[in-house]
Amino acid sequence: MAISVISKEVIQFLEQLKKNNNREWFTANKKIFKAREAEAKEFFNALMSELNTHDDIEKLKMFRIYRDVRFSHDKTPYQPHFAGSFSRAGAHLRGGYYLRIRPGESFIATGFWGPEKNDLLRIRKEFEMDAGEFRKVINAKPLKSVWGELEGEEVKTAPKGFSKEDPNIDLIKKKQFIFVRNFTDDEVTDPNFLNEVNRSFKAIRPYFDLMSDILTTNLNGESLLD
C-alpha cells in the first residue's frame, strides 16, 4: 500500500488561499480546493489507521474550511488550513490528538485542551496530593525528546481552595495540559511525515495512560466507571 503524503500542491493551494481569502477567488478555484481537500482527507484517514495500530480511535473530525465570522473581527471567510482531531474510544481512554496543516504554521498537539470543571479539579487534587509520578512521566526522555515541555494556559494565582505555597503550584495553576510540536513545510511534505506524526503520538501514550488513570479514579484509587 502506498504511503499517504501531503503534496507540495496542498501547501501551495493554502498559500494562495491565504493571499486571496475571498469568495470570488475561492469560487473560481473550487475544483482545485476539492482535489486538495481530498488529498488532506486521505492523509488524515491514513493517520487514523496508523493510530489504531497502537491506540483505540473512536472517530476523526475534520474541521470545515469555512469560517464562522458572525462574532469575529476577522471577516475572512476561509481557514487557510486543513485540520482535524482524533478522539479516543470509551470513557476509560482520555485525551486526544490534533493535526493542522497550514503553510509555515503546521503543528500537531495532544493532551487536554479544556478539561471540564470536575476533571480539572480532580487533576489539581492529584497534584496537591503528589505530582511525583506525573513529573516523572512528562520528563521521561522518550516523551520529552519528541514533545519538549508541557504547555497550556494557567491562572495567575492559586485556584480557590489551593495554597499558593504548594510545592506543585506550577502544575496546579494550569488550566490546560497539552504538548505541541511544530513542523516546517518541508517536513510536512516529506514522505516520512505520516510516520513521524504517528511516532510522535505514540510517544505520548505513557502520559495518556497516567491521565486516564487519574481521571477515572478517585483520590483513593477507586474506579469511577463502575
Automatic annotation (TrEMBL):
Membrane-spanning intervals of the chain: none
Pfam families registered for this protein in UniProt: DUF2461 (PF09365)
InterPro entries hit by this protein: CHP02453, UCP028451
NCBIfam families, sorted: TIGR02453 family protein
Protein's UniProt name: TIGR02453 family protein
Organism for this UniProt entry: Poritiphilus flavus
